[in-house]
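Sharing a chain and its predicted structure for anyone who wants a worked example. Both blocks are below, sequence first, tokens second.
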Amino acid sequence: MSKWLTIAGMGEDGWNGLSARARHAIETADVIVGSSRLLAFLPKTAAEIHEWPQPFSAVVDRIRPLRDRNTVILATGDPLNYGVARKLMEFIPFAEMEIIPSLSAFSLAAARVGWSLPDCDTLTLHGREAAHIEPFIQPDVRLIVLTADRTTIAEVARRLTARGFGSSEITVLENMGGPRERMSSFLAEAPTAIEYSDLNTLAIHCIAAPDAKRLSRLAGLPDDAFAHDGQITKREVRAATLAALEPWPGALLWDVGAGCGSISIEWMRAARAAQAIAFESEPQRLAMIAANADALGTPRLKVIPGTAPETFAAQPAPDAVFIGGGLWIPGLFEGSWEALKPGGVMVANVVTIEGELHLYDLHEKHGGDIVRMEISHLTHVGRLRALRPRMAVTQWRARKPW
């Protein structure tokens, strides 16, 4: 199949900013598809013009019938940098298209504020909840952030301030590359009353106050980082559990008996695009999971209310499973193990003798390792100090055969 589709990036400098290759593609196109904003930059053309359909799901029905025609899709900036090209390649083979990038908003923003891109974290909040910024808020880091619209600015400032990063400088870069370009800065704790453009990008230098909440992306957040009712996998055990689960980019975890969601939330924070499903039956804990997911930057965490294993039905197969409670429930382990992909990791924690006996049976049948973790914390005994042991946790770790 010949290349019938060109995806051309365009900036706010419009036609004048396009490369010769992009101009030629547009000048020879039979059909041009784009937003009204980008289409307005084009000179007169004999091509058939289509405005970008809404919602995005309608794109498939609009683009597929054009397969036999020379088609150009106008995209903002770099189509492969949080742009439309990735979505289009889900139903159009890459071999049938050519991609001609323009400067991305990240490159433009870095050039405006004088930051080296490899020294920045880049992310998008366009079409995503602002909570996604939370794991990136770290002392002295520089963030370049695509926004949904002007409302993102105030929400980002609120989240920075709530974490104790109110002295962070936020630079708002509007309509970069065009005649309406504007750049202005303010401290997160002192937002301005400026009416910003919806087309903006943020450059943020994160500055932490002495009492700021510094929440590492490594496993083992403090217990008080989570809203919980005491039923939480404690910090040291949680760190060991995440290490045993081996989070990797894009992998899906089933967190069975999720409690406050600490394991699934830290799984998602640990690796790019990691996914998790939290299975929980208690209404109060369901509310805690939602609150923790928002506060800790994992709003994509999928929460399934109800009693396992009945709630396993129709859920996508996991790459890893954690069972933090209820291992004794009939069918819970069997349903989890059956759903787990070959080569996937299973980790179960117990604190009771009956639970240990169950783990020994599972180890006998499926192999793996059994580890006991005994953690002690400093406490006071009168005027003296002692290490008080917590309840020991026994953990079974196993990998499902290929």
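Comments welcome. The chain has a mean pLDDT of 95.
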